[in-house]
Design goal:
Layout: E1 18-21, E2 25-28, E3 37-48, E4 55-66, E5 70-74, H1 81-88, E6 97-105, E7 108-109, H2 115-121, E8 126-129, H3 133-136, H4 143-153, H5 160-173, H6 190-201, E9 208-212, H7 220-237, E10 240-245, H8 248-254, E11 257-262, E12 265-271, H9 272-277, H10 282-289, H11 328-332, E13 338-341, E14 344-346
């Protein structure tokens, strides 16, 4: 996507460099201006003990993020998207645990940090824009008090005048008046509360911002405004973003790279234009086909069946009980990482046999 599209949607041209995906292989992008790796996740596993055995919420996820890149993680509820990103901040609540993997942020393994180290890294190096600002902001504290709490925890801006100026600047950077600092969350609209959460996330200029379905409770107009605010804030501090969501249309307009998750695994990941023009996993194709289009009239079809159990997942390819392309082999063999093209990785036995769908580019229009 080019920067010329910025006024029509959320998109901007991706930073240049490399994408390492699924199994961690290196894939060089066709446009080569270079890009610094900011996050490198390798073989991440998260599980929750149950009476029937461990529930593998995240099962061997690997990906790499360049500085300034926006990665979208998409999939059905329960696919492991939020668990993946919460693991990066060590926010998996007991009895859940990170059972394996590494997540190096600018060379430092987030998963190996002590409780004190990760507490210090949160918001100073890796920040979270949570799902549902209504439940994330303290209702009995003003916006200023909540930003002050973050700055106090990291011993930043101790001078009162400097801090007041910083708080005002943060709010103005996300499109809010400086006077919002003196208001309580209940006095703000849903979109304003979400902007406050973005202001808190960028308060210490982190290297990575995680946005966990930040627009799920907002109407489409406010959703667009909030996403534009997030992009503007990201560009100001030069951070990378991981956006978690269900909306493939939103991913098409926001992300540089899209990763599709199913049953705790990344099943396809590629640059946004490539994944919409040439989706190679049946699950990805079915997600994209659910998008409305103004160009053609069609009957909307849901994905048959339900998401599999992560305690007793299907043998072979986890998607095979719901897949229209499945054969006997799919029930026996786990698909390997197939590199279709530069930066385009797929886990499907028939990825190279699936022709591009005729209507999958509609979301990019």
């Amino acid at each position: 996507m080019s920067d010329k599209r910025e006024g029509k949607g959320f998109a901007a041209g991706p930073p240049q460099g490399e994408i390492r995906t699924l199994g961690g292989q290196r894939s060089t992008r066709s446009d080569k201006r270079g890009g610094d790796i900011i996050l490198e996740v390798r073989d991440l596993h998260v599980e929750f003990p149950t009476a029937a055995g461990p529930a593998r919420a995240v099962d061997g996820v690997s990906f790499t993020l360049d500085k300034g890149m926006r990665l979208g993680l998409v999939g059905e509820s329960g696919s492991g998207k939020s668990t993946t990103v919460l693991a990066l901040m060590q926010l998996i609540k007991a009895p859940g645990r990170i059972s394996a993997g590494t997540a190096r942020l600018a060379g430092d393994d987030l998963l190996a940090m002590t409780a004190q180290q990760i507490r210090k890294a949160r918001f100073s190096r890796i920040a979270l824009v949570p799902q549902g600002a209504m439940n994330s902001l303290n209702p009995v504290l003003t916006v200023r008090a909540q930003i002050d709490d973050l700055l106090d925890a990291h011993q930043q801006k101790p001078d009162p005048k400097e801090r007041a100026s910083h708080v005002a600047s943060l709010l103005q950077r996300v499109g809010l008046a400086a006077t919002v600092a003196n208001q309580y969350p209940h006095q703000l609209s849903g979109g304003m509360k979400q902007r406050v959460c973005i202001a808190i996330a960028i308060a210490l200029s982190p290297q990575l911002i995680i946005a966990d379905e930040p627009t799920s409770a907002l109407d489409v107009i406010v959703q667009k405004q909030v996403m534009q605010t997030l992009i503007h804030a990201q560009k100001e501090i030069g951070a990378a973003i991981i956006l978690v969501g269900h909306d493939m249309g939103l991913m098409a307009q926001f992300a540089h790279v899209v990763g599709v998750m199913y049953a705790g695994r990344l099943v396809e990941i590629a640059p946004v234009k490539e994944i919409f023009a040439n989706p190679r996993h049946p699950y990805t194709r079915m997600l994209i086909s659910s998008l409305p289009s103004f160009a053609t009239r069609k009957v909307f079809r849901g994905i048959p069946g339900v998401a599999p159990s992560i305690v007793n997942p299907p043998s072979g390819c986890a998607f095979h009980p719901r897949c229209p392309r499945a054969e006997e082999r799919c029930a026996r063999e786990v698909p390997i990482d197939d590199v279709i093209s530069a930066g385009h990785h797929v886990r499907c036995h028939f990825a190279r046999e699936l022709a591009p769908a005729a209507d999958t580019g509609a979301a990019l229009a």
